[in-house]
Fold this sequence. Notes:
Number of strands: 4
Oligomer: single chain
Structural class: alpha+beta
Amino acid sequence: MIDATLGAEIDVATxxxxxxxxxxxxxxxxxxxxxxxxxxxxxxxxxxxAHIVTIIVDTPTKLSKRQRNLLEDFNENPKKSIFN
Length: 84
């Protein structure tokens, strides 16, 4: 959830091994990204297809009281940083 909200770089497993991918700030669950030339080879030719990455945001189901309070505070005042 935090990586999708703030943006991050993640390693994605491909058929060639891990590839570093940038997750943009504000990425929503279900967003698809294309890693060109990291998919399976085309049957007729030397090029390769794209590896499609779907982002699934795991929303926490159990929060501590402090975590819940921080999220509620952020929801009431989104311009205030919850990290202070």
